[in-house]
Amino acid sequence: MDNYMQRGGLKWGDDLFLNSINVTYPFAKIEVFPNKIMFKVNVLGVYRKEINLDKSDIIKIKLKRYVLNKGFLFSHNNLKTAPILIFWSFASKELMENLINMGYEDVIDTKQMGGG
User: What is the pTM of this model?
Assistant: First the structure.
């Protein structure tokens, strides 16, 4: 498999609350490749955004439980990208399996997962 894609939501910005943007399902998607992860937003063609993280940019991926779904918090060192980057998933197990299959198991923080 060359890549994996899933639709969901995306939050990015300088902090979790005031200085961030949140886009809900189905207007965001994540594409996982062996060498990079791409986040794409397209809100009815009116607003578009693409965020790319090379594999070497990713420090840690934490899966955290929120009220209605789970979010993957991506810690990274890419200075061109907002420090807060969360992908909201309704199929977190499938996304986790594909992250592992694409070679990201070294940066996944299994201590913070909190449930299946």
Answer: 0.90
Question: How many other β-carbons are positioned within 10 Å of the β-carbon of residue 65?
Answer: 14
First CA to last CA across the chain, in angstroms? 24
Q: Give dist(CA 46, CA 53) in Å, integer.
A: 24
Considering the four listed CATH numbers 3.30.950.10, 2.30.30.40, 2.30.29.30, 1.10.357.10, the one that applies to the domain covering 4-112 is: 2.30.29.30
Q: What is the mean pLDDT of residues 13-26?
A: 92
Cis peptide before 83 (omega within 30 of 0): no
Per-residue DSSP letters for 95-115? HHHHHHHTT-GGGEEGGG---
| Contacting residues for 1 by C-beta, under 8 A, at least 6 apart | 101
